[in-house]
Amino acid sequence: PSADGIAALVGYLLRAGCIPAIEHTERPGPRQVYWEMWKLPLFEARSTDEVLGEIEACATAHPRSYVRLIGYDPRRQGQVLSVVVRRP
What local confidence, expressed as pLDDT, does residue 30 receive? Predict the structure, then answer.
């Protein structure tokens, strides 16, 4: 997705009350279901810029990795969104 699309997606997640989390891996694939978590889920995230900054920090720290954004819904108690936001 484009930078504007990612920002819109993050904004939607935050407005919906979801908790964003960031994961990364160097080898994604159909059997690679466990990605490494970047820090802890962003429980206290309130702004789009804060989440976008963490995505950028993860991509900078792991330049050869794919980075994905996860959205957890605390009411349903499960993952409701998973999107790759950066590619190496």
Answer: 85
| Mean pLDDT (the chain, rounded) | 95
Structure tokens at 55: 């995505």
Does residue 79 sit in helix, strand or coil? strand
d(CA 25, CA 36) in angstroms, rounded, equals 6
Q: Check the CA dihedral 9-84-52-78 and report its sign.
A: positive
Q: Where on the phi/psi map is residue 15: left (φ > 0), alpha (ψ -120 to 50), or beta?
A: alpha
DSSP structure class, residue 13: H
Query: Does the model's pTM come out above 0.70?
Result: yes
